[in-house]
Amino acid sequence: METIRTKLRPLVSVVAPCYNEEESLREFHGRVAAACSGLTGSYEIVLVDDGSKDATWQVIEALADDDPHVVGVRLLRNHGHQLAATAGLHVANGERVMLIDADLQDPPELLGAMMACMDEGADVVYGQRVSREGETWFKLATAGLFYRMLTKLTSVPIPRDTGDFRLMSRRVVDLFLLMPERQRFIRGMVSWIGGNQVALPYERHARFAGSSKYPLSKMIRFAVDAITSFSTVPLRIAVWVGLVTAGLSMLLLLYALYQWSQNVVVAGWASIITAIAFLGGLQMLMLGVFGEYLGRLVQETKGRPLFMVKSIRAGKHLHEVPSNFSRLEPGMRDDVVAAWSGER
């Protein structure tokens, strides 16, 4: 059933999660608007404030007042990059949706090339980094290790050296929004959907302003989410390590019995304590692996909303949204936001 929302569907939506990006937002908006208007007049720019502590939301409100193409989404609290991006994708209504960060490391000017690839039949066009300016050797080395390890562990082929910077068709976005998992790894989820996914090589720039929102601790958590969401290999490793350890313990027992039969008694306890400590540590490690997966199952079964939207700003109009917005299917979300779409 066609809704008001679908009748007003723009050709392209640009979705950008924003966390403490007040210094770069106006420059980002200017470059994105120029890239979009150079292709079509039918576009929207969805800026998601992920619980920022600076004036990010105030800047978004000002941009929405000045530019009718801007839609501001304000979350109740900080949810993290992946859920903020998901919230933006829920609101975006374009036939094609570009996902990009607001720090201008990924150039919005590539929209035209991505659109051309999609015109040729691509369902997804993802940016693949050939270089990364302004990043330390440690960040580059750990990122390279992460992508190569992920390739070995996952059953779904996830392209190397890619982020969430991509252009997706409406069909792919709607399929993505039907996925309910909380521990989200967007580039892996989009890869899992399949279809014709095409790489677009590009050079990644340094941040326009501010500092990285991904310190080492967040990078580690992100890597754990990626691996546990798309691979059961750690569980299999735990099983094999357990079997090998059990086999070694059996051999040690047979050796001890043989020594006892030869009346050779080993004095001291150092070796015993070492063995106990080794086996105990190994057991705790394996329990930790199982616990990581079990904890994610517990979070999924709670059924809490993925994100909580406080309000949506379109032009000078501020709209409250229902608390169950993140759980609505695409057609139902169209009905919910039809009113504020009509005002635009």
From TrEMBL:
It is found in: Cell membrane. This is Glycosyltransferase. Residues 13-173 form the Glycosyltransferase 2-like domain. The chain crosses the membrane at residues 237-258, 264-290. InterPro entries: Glyco_trans_2-like, Glycosyltransferase_2, Nucleotide-diphossugar_trans. Belongs to the glycosyltransferase 2 family. GtrB subfamily. The lineage of its organism: Bacteria, Pseudomonadati, Pseudomonadota, Alphaproteobacteria, Acetobacterales. One of its GO terms (cellular component) is plasma membrane. It is a multi-pass membrane protein. It comes from the Bacteria. Pfam families: Glycos_transf_2. One of its GO terms (molecular function) is glycosyltransferase activity. The keyword Kinase does not apply. Keywords: Cell membrane, Glycosyltransferase, Membrane, Transferase, Transmembrane, Transmembrane helix.
